[in-house]
Amino acid sequence: MSSPSVVRSITPARLARAQRRASRLRWTGVLAIVAGTHFIAAQWFERHHGTFKPVSPEHVPVQVALLKPERIETQAAGSPPPAKAAPAAPARPAHAPRKHVLTATRSGLKPHETAPATEPASEPASEPASAPEEASAASVASPASGATGSNANPNATGQGHAQNTAPGVKFSVPPSGNLQYDTFYNGVRNQPGTIHWSSDGRSYDVIVSVPLPFVGTFSYASRGHVDAFGLAPDQYIEKRGRRGEDVTTFHRDTKEIGFTRTPTTLPLQDGAQDRFSMVMQLASLVRGDPGAYQPGVTRQFYVTDNDSGEIWPIETIGDESVRTDQGIIDARHFMRLPRREGDRRRIDVWLAPSLGWLPARLVQTEPNGTQIELVWRGKIAPPDATGNDASSDDASPGPSQPSVTDPGAGPEKP
Predict the structure, then answer these.
(1) Mean pLDDT across the stretch 233-257?
(2) DSSP-assigned beta bridge partners for residue 283
(3) Count of CB atoms within 10 A of residue 357's CB?
(4) What residue spans define the domains of the chain?
(5) Among 391, 315, 381, which Cα is nearest to 357's?
(6) Is the pLDDT of residue 406 over 70?
(7) pLDDT of residue 46
(8) Long-range contacts formed by 330-334: CB under 8 A, 24+ apart
(9) What percent of the chain has pLDDT over 90?
(10) Cβ 358 vs Cβ 174: under 8 Å
């Protein structure tokens, strides 16, 4: 048995050596863990780096046109909807999807230039089968135009319709449906997101849901109606994760925009949009006249957030291919240009004609480089219980093709 004097003479030295040895072992373990973590991360990035495809800062085409908010062409009061005159218009392929058409003329053309007649107006139809077309043409013709029953030929339909419309830009609301999207946060795939879009041509409802790791689901809802400038939001609701809702209200009666996040109010401008109604407004404009949006063409939108508003210049980049799990989709790329010097936040949208010009891909790039991306992954769900898609030819014409008779027409604001 050791004596107390021997223990006292040996313990301090051994204890110091043991402490140094333990410290070296701890640091060695920490370094090994760090090195192992970096190795695993490097291996993961090597295998998945193709998933993260940031939008390349390609050269933006030279701007060739700047389009500001304009009135859409609307059907005059008392005139039948444009759909009634469709059978007398130039034949369209039977398989082509029917649009929610709200316009029928190109911006800048005089009404009589929209459907030039190719036959004498007084030439009667020679076949009894054309009687329904004659009745349709006669019902569209305006008394002020001097049209009579002898004008019963297919081309008279276009003339009558043009004389009962107010000229403006083409505008065609996309078909209703639910779209699913693969979501990526800095290239890492997360749970699927959704865009719910519903419109009967008079009102609309869009809800965007994007789940994000650790912070919860980001949801954005915009509800409103259709007026003389297209989509007219009544209320925009934004909820980010566990935070409370921020509500933006468009007061049409007082011509003001109010916020719950700030007591500040803004004047309500014609054609004003929120962050997500802007995407659907753009889709409706492009769907109405795809040929008008060539590379370099820029359209301005006044867009409100949850506490402010500003002009967004949206430029047409060009037609591109979007790679999805369902295959390659042809789409047209639009990009928000910098709003001010030093603006590094960026929004890119790809609208696909095969989806009724609804988004096939959306990418938001933050100033710090963080990217949130949505890529289409599923078909548009049937908008009604019968399973008929709103874009099918045999769908009920109902309220999907209404005439807009009053710039302020639409539901009262919530």
Answers:
(1) 94
(2) none
(3) 24
(4) 76-166, 172-400
(5) 391
(6) no
(7) 55
(8) 330/354, 331/360, 331/361, 332/286, 332/290, 332/293, 334/282, 334/293
(9) 40
(10) yes
Closest to 171 (Cα-Cα) out of 312, 292, 80: 292
**Partners of 220 in beta bridges:** 208, 238
User: What pLDDT shows up at residue 289?
Assistant: 95
Phi, psi of 375 (to 5 degrees): -130, 130
What is the pLDDT, as a whole number, of residue 146? Answer: 39
Alpha helices in 228-328 (DSSP H): 277-288
* Alpha carbon distance 338, 331 (integer Å): 22
| Predicted pLDDT at 342 | 82
Closest CA to 90 of 104, 111, 79: 104
Phi, psi of 188 (to 5 degrees): -95, 125
| Angle, helix 154-163 to helix 131-140, in steps of 10 degrees | 20
Q: What is the mean pLDDT of residues 63-87?
A: 59
**Residue 400 pLDDT greater than 60, yes or no:** no
Query: Other CB atoms closer than 10 Å to residue 208's CB: what's the count?
Result: 23
d(CA 287, CA 100): 10
Which of 30-44, 261-275, 396-410 is predicted most confidently?
261-275
Residue 181, both tokens: 């999207």
pLDDT at 70: 80
Q: Is 340 exposed, middle or buried (0-12, 13-18, 19+ CB in 10 A)?
A: exposed
Taken in order 305, 280, 325, 53, the sign of the CA dihedral is: negative
- C-alpha angle 226-231-234 in degrees, rounded to nearest 5: 85
The single residue listed with the structure tokens 């110091």 is 16
Residues 6+ apart with CB under 8 A from 237: 219, 220, 221, 222, 245, 246, 247, 248
Residue 314 has pLDDT above 60, yes or no: yes
Average pLDDT score over residue span 235-247: 91
Fold of the domain spanning 172-400: outer membrane lipoprotein receptor (LolB), chain A (2.50.20)
Burial call 248-274: b when 16+ CB within 10 Å, e when fewer: bbbebeeeebbbeeeeeebebeebbbb
The residue to which tokens 């933050």 are assigned: 366
